[in-house]
Design brief:
The protein has about 240 residues and is an alpha/beta fold. It is about 25% helix and about 30% strand. The strands form 3 sheets. A 7-stranded mixed beta sheet has the order 5-4-3-9-10-12-11, sandwiched between helices. Strands 6-8-7 form a 3-stranded mixed beta sheet.
Length: about 240
């Protein structure tokens, strides 16, 4: 997403394109306008994810941001677990949930990774670029201490149910997150599809590569069903045969 710094008057935007009942979102910056009214530049990918959902599915929205996918998915009948460790983004997510009168979205405050502990999240706040667990830009960003944990641990302590679909968009931490859910991905109850945004320019700051992301999923029995370059990212859908 291009960096934007101008200010806007806060307003409520109604998006009707992805659900017949429409969805409401607070928009207070150009960054939020892009995420909401321009679909984050990912309208087709978002439509594909929503079309994948069946009534009653459990969706893990990892990197939920302001809740654009989570809210649309919940209105389609999915039970959504929205993972958002950034306090600023999480506050807007909760505000958007209230605007849509949704109670079928569980907000998870920890960052999905490959271990349990604490980490620094680099963030400009909800009006800026997406937060990241590594310093991926040359400019100064705010820093927030967050808890990190693994999906496998969350499942083992029964904080989480088994997901049918996973959406993963965490700014370069993809390989770490996948490492921390290998038991799930290799199990008989593995999610049938994973919608992932891969960040080739950010992955090296985590000591990872696009090939590692693919290898982790292939080792769990997933194959690529969709592959689209976007800006400096790659949008992919992985499925179990």
């Amino acid at each position: 997403m291009p960096e934007v710094t101008d200010r806007m008057t806060p307003r409520i935007a109604r998006i009707d394109a992805l659900h017949p009942a429409g969805c409401l979102f607070k928009v207070a910056s150009s960054s939020e306008s892009f995420r909401v009214e321009k679909f984050g530049g990912e309208e087709q990918f978002t439509r594909m994810l929503l079309d994948e959902l069946r009534d009653g599915d459990v969706l893990f929205d990892i990197g939920a941001c302001i809740g654009f996918v989570a809210i649309h998915a919940a209105k389609k009948g999915a039970r959504v677990f929205a993972f958002e460790p950034d306090p600023s983004f999480r506050a807007r997510l909760r505000e958007n949930l209230r605007l849509n009168d949704l109670s079928t979205v569980d907000v998870i405050a920890w960052a999905v990774s490959d271990s349990h502990g604490h980490a620094t999240l680099y963030s400009d706040g909800v009006a800026g670029l997406s937060p990241c667990l590594q310093a991926t830009t040359n400019r100064d960003r705010g820093r927030v201490a967050v808890t990190i944990d693994t999906i496998d641990r969350g499942l083992a302590r029964r904080e989480l149910p088994i997901p049918n679909i996973i959406k993963l968009d965490i700014e370069g931490a993809e390989a770490r997150a996948l490492h921390g859910m290998q038991q799930l991905l290799k199990s008989a109850n593995a999610p049938r599809a994973i919608f992932i945004e891969i960040h080739p320019t950010f992955l090296p700051t985590f000591g990872a590569t696009v090939e590692e992301v693919h290898t982790r999923l292939a080792a769990a029995g997933y194959t690529v069903a969709y592959d689209e370059p976007r800006f400096d990212q790659i949008l992919r859908i992985y499925r179990k045969p």
